[in-house]
Amino acid sequence: MELETRLNESRPASPGTLRPGGRTAKVRRAVLDATLDALAKSGFHALNMDRIAASAGVGKTTVYRRWTSPTGLVGDLLHDMAEQSLPAADTGTLAGDLRANAELVRATLTDPRMGAVFRAVIAAAACDEECARALAGFYRTRLAEWTPAVAKGAARGEVPAGTDPVELLRAVSAPLYYRFAVTHEELTADVAERAATAALAAARDGVFVRE
Amino acid sequence: MELETRLNESRPASPGTLRPGGRTAKVRRAVLDATLDALAKSGFHALNMDRIAASAGVGKTTVYRRWTSPTGLVGDLLHDMAEQSLPAADTGTLAGDLRANAELVRATLTDPRMGAVFRAVIAAAACDEECARALAGFYRTRLAEWTPAVAKGAARGEVPAGTDPVELLRAVSAPLYYRFAVTHEELTADVAERAATAALAAARDGVFVRE
Question: Where is this region: Disordered (chains A, B) (predicted)?
Answer without folding.
Answer: 1-25
